[in-house]
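Office hours follow-up: a student asked to see two folded examples consecutively, so here they are.
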Amino acid sequence: MAITGFPAKYGLLLGLYVAWLCYASTAGEATCKLKATFNLSGYKKVEKKKVIIGGMFSVHNRLASTGNSTSSVPVSSGCEGFNFRTFRWTQTMLFAINEINNSSKLLPNTDLGYVIYDSCFTISKAVEGTLTYLTGQDYAVPNYRCGNGAPLAALVGAGGCDLSIATARILGLYYFPQVSYSSSCSVLESRFQYPTFLRTVPSDEHQSVAMAQLVLRFGWTWVGTIAADDDYGKYGIKRFKEIVEEAGVCISFAETLPKLTSPETIQRIVRAVTESTAKIVVVFSSDVDLSPLVEELLRNNVTNRTWIASESWVTSSLIARRPNIMSVLGGTLGFAIQRAEIPGLQEHLLRIDPYQDALTEEFWETAFNCTLSYSRALRNARAAREAGNATASKVSTRAAIEGLCNGQESLQKLNSTYSDVSQLRLTYNVYKAVYSVAYALHNLEHCVPGKGPFEGGTCANISNFEPWQLMYYLKNLRFKVPHTGEEIFFNDGEVMGYYEILNWQRASDGGVTYTSIGYYNSTAPTNKRLFIDNSSIIWHNDMVQAPRSVCSERCQPGTRMGIRQGEPVCCFDCIPCADGEISNTTDARGCIQCEADYWSNANRDACVPKTIEFLDFGEALGITLIVIAVFGALLTFMVVVVFMMYLNTPLVQVNDPLLSFTLLLGLVVTFLCSIVFLGKPQPWSCMTSQVALAVGFAIVLSSLMGKSALLMLRARAIKATKAAAKAAKAAAAASEQSPDTTAIAPAAPPKNDIDPIKPIHQRVMMAVCTLIQAVACTVWLILLPPHPVKNTAAQNIKIILECDPGNIIFICCVFGYDVLLALLAFVFAFVARKLEDHFSEGKCVTFGMLVFFIVWISFVPAYLSTRGKFMVAVQIFAILASSFGLLMCVFLPKCYVLLVKPERNTDEMMIPRAKSRDSKATGTSASLSTATEANGTTISTVSLND
């Protein structure tokens, strides 16, 4: 019936248009087709199940090799290399699901199904399984969920880090939960990249830190590293290196295990291990990737190394069950995740039906090295016969029967990795992962309407929920694992880092025993996270002493580390600290300079006070110098006494006795002032010693200069008298030859004319010269007086206490003035050296001054070449020697005449005269005076013979 107001022809046109649209839609659908069909193996049970849990395990180790031809349709590769350990994990998931389905407390109204795929330890298979799982059919249709079956809950898996990263990226697109049991790499911590990823295994961040703390705990600074060529190995070893290198540990070698078998690479790694001096090798790898390297190590008998194992292989039977493995890996330390006992699991593992499915059948045939198919056994027997050139069919039939399994073989007697439940660690993680999904589903199912977590207080329907709704319950989950009581909760998808530290020790049968020696707990205080019982460790070759692994031995206190050019910082030379520097810690980077009053001890590990040195009164040298000085002063005093006794005799009176006494006083001052140089320098002693010495020598030298001036003038007067006598003699001779000529001889000078200066003049000269020195010393003491100082520069290990002159100009002027006086006295005495009296006083003064000069000229190099208290000793010796020289040369002849030859102490003997050149004349002959009268003129002559 036509619609009112609508023409029939338009209705026909509308029908034709709708028919065209339907055809076009059908034709469009026909153009969509699958590009590939995946070849996946595993377990699947979804019929009449309320919720489906996915699983992914690396039951095989690798893909089967296929041709690379592009001339035919590509096929999804199969898998090879059956792994008993991961097959046990697969059966653990099945066991947990069956246990949950049989529980009356957990999901009592929900029957769980499962879809489990084999990832073959490769990313491509993991991606294939993920896509197929999300599609809900045996083939993958991206972005589609095909069929009306039970909802998918979560994926348990997918094994290694690389596999989980690949699956997590896909599942994250749909906000589909993923709970991993073994993917521990730290990169998966990012919730920005992997929003729906959770795991029951601790992050490798904790394991890397624990490994680093273990290395640092034993003081190993020279280690090698080996990592798998995947995210698990790369990120784990990278974090380990960051921590240990920051703490000063050096990496001897860093090698990477290939994912595909490469004998050349494995041999290169073995060479790196054997050629390195590092005794510690840290390995971050799975057991599958490590297995080829272990084979090569056994073949090359690489021993004397301690291996640090990551949790992925430390309890792996694939590694530990190899023959003679303890010769290479004995003493290994490794970190293992928490271990548990799962009641009923072993019975489940031993009850499996070999005919249940293709995967179990392959396990059975691999485990017992047989086949469950008679036709396959017969084919195998024929192949063996052809290879062995056998001819009898009876033999081939018997061989086929021998290679055939009956399905009744005992797994318990097999003693394989599959049935070994002594180290349920990753297996326990699988168990926890399945129960995590189950408890999340339980909480979702028992949500109270109106109090739900979703908009409007609604709840999700257990029969038809979205993945993000289950994700909410997983993130807020907290439950206790059955049988173990361990509380599980996710902190932003992570669990706490707890590891048991195991030590590989030799069992009684020569195998491996995993001995617990400590633990690492990331939630404990920083200083208590790592605990190790050192006494429980048995190292490689059954040693109880921890091995040392250093590039260079530690530098002990007293030395510093000298880095070798072009080598790691752990390779260094220990250089002793220089004098005055110390290092009081082990492995010091540099030496510490001691303070000014301290010096390094013999071991260069401590600063000790410097030895304080000065010439003390109590030491032998000081006592000796004191005795000599006192003896000199006493001797001088004795001379004074002698002169006092013979004060009125001609010898004492001949050259101003007062000058003699001032000279002796000056010598007493110089003798006694040398004592002040001894002892610890004090301000008063520094000033007294220097000033007393300068003034004392000024008195001595000015007195000598006064005496020498008189002698010099007498000598000049005698010389004039001599000239007059010659003239008179010449005149007398002329008168004898010419009687007509009267020769008038010049008159001889009177006796008083011989001493042109009086004693008062000598005394004034001495007083003025001494006063000048006294004034100079006073100015010195007022402006810049001498003061004690600590001389730390002369000798490194000593502090020399000495007197600083205050100002070099002043001391040069003061003692330069003494030198000037000495030169004048010497010149005056030298001029009068030929003047003869009874004791030749001019010669005595000349010799005394020569001794004075010789002593002080010798003093200069001796003083400059000595250090410390010996400089003071040299100075005192010079003072005493010069004083004794003057005393002996000037006063010894006089004392000899006074005490031994008193008959020579007469006025006649004291008359000065020039030295006679007549060989018959003696120096002590008296002068003869003759008076001749010529023409009534008296001529007085002195016998002066040239």
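And the second, which I mentioned at the end of office hours:
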Amino acid sequence: MDGLQGSQIEALRQLQSILGPHDTEFVVSVLESVSWDVQKATDLLFDNEAPKVIAPTQAVPMEQLELDDNAGSSPTIRHSHRGQGNPRSTWSFLWSLLTVPLHLVSGVLRFVFSVLRIPIPSLPFMATNSYHSHRPTSPDSRSITQRWVQQLEEETGACSSKRSTVNAVTTGFEAGPSTTRRHTYPPAASDDNQKILPDFFDGSYEEVLDICQREGRIACVVLVSAEHDDDADFKRSTLTDATFVKILLDNDFIVWGGDIRDKAAWDASQKLQATTYPFVAFLALQPRRHGAPSGATPVVTILSRHQGRAAATASVLIDHLNTQLLPRVTPFLVRFKSVLQDRDRDRRIREEQDRAFRETARRDREAIEMRVRQEKEEEERVRKHAEDVKRKQEDSARQKHQAGIRMEWRKFMRNRLLLPEARGLRLAVKLPGNGRVVRSFPPSATLTALYAFADSQLIPSTSRPEDDPSQAPEGVVDDISQLDSYIQSRTAGHTWWGFTLASAYPRREFRWKANASLTETGLRDGEQIVMELIPGRGSANGQISDDEYESESD
């Protein structure tokens, strides 16, 4: 009421004083539809006179609908909110107040009849309402529709065909009350008297139009008014007619309905211009008319409207569907669905092609990545092999170089450092293999002199003594003491020699020490000494060792 002017507020108060308790928004909408004329609004509500012109000023969302001129129903529209029937007057409101106690009895009887699966009889006090305003609205149109279908089942003793097909063998005792019973369509022999209701869609009216637009289905919109005298008869005879329900199911109708006391149904009635109840309308997607260019997008069209009890009987609706509506709209809908199927098939083909392309691309990518990985692994293997070969070559060259230097040392020691034989300690040295040499050393001789003599025996026999070098390969070495100093500065001792000396039996090892005399070492005259090569450092029997020198035998 915030946006109303003074005259509009006064008209609202006058109409409310006539109607009694009423929903303010509904009264305002009625007054707006008759340009705030209280007299016309009163006539409109009580069906005393139908106004000739209605120009509603309230902005009601209207879908893109067309009225099919070939629908077979009269295009003349009578605007009435509560439907046609016996004229009502102010005394009906007083009567509704006096029948309040009867509503309590009505509620109890409804509960008992619903439990016993007995259709609720149409008694005057059970259909009486204390006021004519909208029922409390819920923001969820789905719950409103479900509640209306539940009430419809209770009033008719029928069951929705949607729930009837869930379980074909469930009995009434097993299933419980009407809202949870399961049946099959057509009913089984054990339940031949069971009535079936259409499969009502529990979404909004706008969703019904959207489904018609997208899926090419025919919509059946059922609007009723509980205050209408023919309401109960329409529900029990038309909505539960087996032939009518079967036509709706076989042709995949989307059925939606409601009581205009609910806002969703009231809005739908305004959009469909319903004036008399019960009201049944059929809508479907049809080509545009009135000079629309070829190829224009089809629009949801009102195919036919059936208003009033006489026009909404089961026989009339069945005859209309079989002889007029279905033959007229089915060819176009079949073509439309065929186009949808072709589009869906093309979409699936494209998706399969895209999926196959992605799979092929994935396999190609994996193959390329595998080849790249194999090439890298091969390159890495070749690189490591080359490094190994190079390292081995370098090690071999280094070993050859070191072996050459060691051979030069042996030759140098044979030429310059070997002590001449003298009476003293006579020692026999068993060389690797079967070679054996005997040598006498003076008592003052050191362990280095013995090692130098044994080392000189590893010089190949092909090397002539006169070709031996007179200078040390490295450093300045002129005698045994300088050789001790050189060896101590370069290695850990016996590793430089590449062998060790030990007595035969009992075995005693004579490891090299600098400046150690033979007598201090414990060597005795006539001692048998065995030359033991350090693994990887020498050879025997004239074979080339790791140091690539040879040994000679006696």
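Two things to take away from it. Residues 314-417 form the longest helix (104 residues). The chain has a mean pLDDT of 77.
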